[in-house]
Write a structure and sequence with these properties.
The chain is built from 14 helices and 17 strands. The structure holds NADP nicotinamide-adenine-dinucleotide phosphate (NAP) and L-homoserine. The site of NADP nicotinamide-adenine-dinucleotide phosphate has 27 residues, from helix 1.
Length: 428
């Protein structure tokens, strides 16, 4: 630690990695003042050594992990490659060899976060991952520290920038789903394979990480009931607006009857609710606790510099810990075993859009089926008939998912029902 220079390796120089490298340069003086040491990114690991990397000297590039692992001068590994493997192996080996770790990798942390945190704790090594959830928004450290006495009972958030951008552009700019996705990809919000964004997997990973930290119980990606936005149409957006709602992809993790209900799906949010006003690539996370009441965190959830800012925030904390011999307290290791609630036992309200034969008695029959299955109708609108087919838009009261599904199966089988065009859950 001569001259207090801390040498680091950056794994990945894509959207986030290039931002981290640039920001580390911009912050050089600040880092010295904040930590008492300076940061040298000694190695940058990439897959393709031939690709041009703006601002990164070619001589520090490598595609060889062993060079980094076996370099005793490198005390800090900043992992912004993504994916479960080889990132898991690299982080495990880094921790085992006593190197501190900062990561933005939600894919890895949503599946193996608890295992890695336990290992880091055992080895007295820092493992920080603020950027893994909601980009630039500080939410990991608040969940582990500031909110740890809040008796949290609910987290509800818009935690995927790509889908929020798409839904905003479909609603406000009349863009098609495909146009908006192309824009989000160009802006660096989308994952390398945007399926993870649009199918809700990215949000599911983030809500799994937050649920584990909030409730001190392990929740993994596969525990999360997940629906994406690929079935949302311009008509759904228009009808939702007519009813006074915006459609958002939300992640929810709530303590319900001694279980953790954890899910990601599109939702109609009342226009006056603060989450309805979260636009473009912005993210927001609402938390409710019995002690703290409500709190909301909002900011940029994706993109090069916002995400790099969260990574560098962690780097500064780890540097300070290294220089003050204070590494190894990460928090967040689960010490409870709270079961995950089956989705069919969850209660929701629904927006249901149907195309039906325009003849007397059809609405009454549908209402009868819904009523017989415990589904109450809160609002219903019938649109003018075209070619003998009318459109019905129904908003239900709160109902158990399994009762709604039973009703839906019968409705789908009715001869008067031509199409079930949209099913979206409704807030409240
Ligand atoms: P990206 O643009 O695809 O960049 C990935 C980088 O990692 C590339 O430089 C790539 O090398 C390198 N890489 C990937 N696999 C590698 C391997 N096996 N060996 C060596 N290098 C490898 O990804 P990104 O958007 O920056 O995301 C990075 C991480 O941050 C992911 O975990 C992501 O989920 C997370 N994150 C991203 C955002 C965002 O807004 N983009 C926000 C929050 C968190 P090549 O350049 O040679 O291909
Ligand atoms: N693809 C992610 C998003 C990046 O759109 O939110 C941030 O994790």
């Amino acid at each position: 630690m001569e001259n207090h220079v801390i040498k680091a390796a950056l794994l990945g120089a894509g959207t986030v990695g290039s931002g981290v490298y640039a920001l580390a340069g911009m912050l050089a003086d600040e880092i010295c003042k904040k930590t008492g040491g300076s940061l040298e990114i000694k190695r940058v690991m990439v897959r393709d050594l031939k690709k041009k990397r703006d601002g990164i000297p070619p001589e520090i590039l490598t595609d060889n992990w062993e060079e980094i692992l076996n370099d005793d001068e490198i005390w800090l590994v900043i992992e912004v490659m993504g994916g479960v493997e080889p990132a898991k192996t690299y982080i495990t080996q880094a921790v085992l060899s006593g190197k501190q770790v900062v990561s933005a990798n939600k894919d890895l942390l949503a599946e193996h976060g608890q295992e890695l945190l336990s290992l880091a704790e055992e080895r007295g090594v820092d493992l920080q991952f603020e950027a893994a959830v909601a980009g630039a928004i500080p939410i990991i450290r608040p969940l582990k520290q500031s909110l740890s006495a809040s008796l949290l009972t609910e987290i509800m958030g818009i935690v995927n920038g790509t889908t929020n951008y798409i839904l905003t552009k479909m609603s406000e700019a009349g863009m098609s789903y495909e146009e908006a996705l192309e824009e989000a990809t160009k802006l660096g919000y989308a994952e390398a394979d945007p399926t993870a964004d649009v199918e809700g997997y990215d949000a599911a990973r983030k809500i799994a990480i937050m649920a584990s930290l909030a409730y001190n119980s392990t929740v993994v990606f596969s525990d999360v009931y997940t629906e994406g936005i690929t079935k949302i149409t311009a008509e759904d957006v228009r009808y939702a607006e007519e009813f006074g709602y915006a459609i958002k992809l939300v992640g929810i993790a709530a303590l319900e009857g001694g279980q953790i209900g954890v899910r990601v799906h599109p939702m109609l949010i009342p226009e006056q609710h603060p989450l309805a006003t979260v636009r473009d690539s912005f993210n927001a996370v609402f938390v409710h606790g019995e002690a703290n009441d409500d709190a909301m965190f909002m900011g940029r959830g994706a993109g090069k510099m916002p995400t790099a800012s969260a990574v560098m925030g962690d780097v500064i904390i780890v540097m300070r810990n290294i220089l003050h011999d204070n590494c190894g307290w990460n928090g967040g290791v689960a010490y409870k075993h709270i079961p995950v609630k089956p989705m069919e036992e969850t209660k929701s309200r629904f927006f249901l859009r149907l195309k039906v034969a325009d003849r007397p008695g059809v609405l009454a029959n549908i209402a009868g089926v819904l009523g017989n299955n415990d589904v109450s109708i809160a609002q219903v609108v019938q649109k003018p008939s075209r070619g003998g087919v009318a459109e019905l838009v129904v908003i239900t009261g709160a109902v158990l998912e399994r009762h709604f599904n039973d009703a839906l199966m019968i409705v789908k089988g009715m001869s008067a029902v031509r199409e079930v065009s949209g099913i979206i859950r409704v807030y409240g």
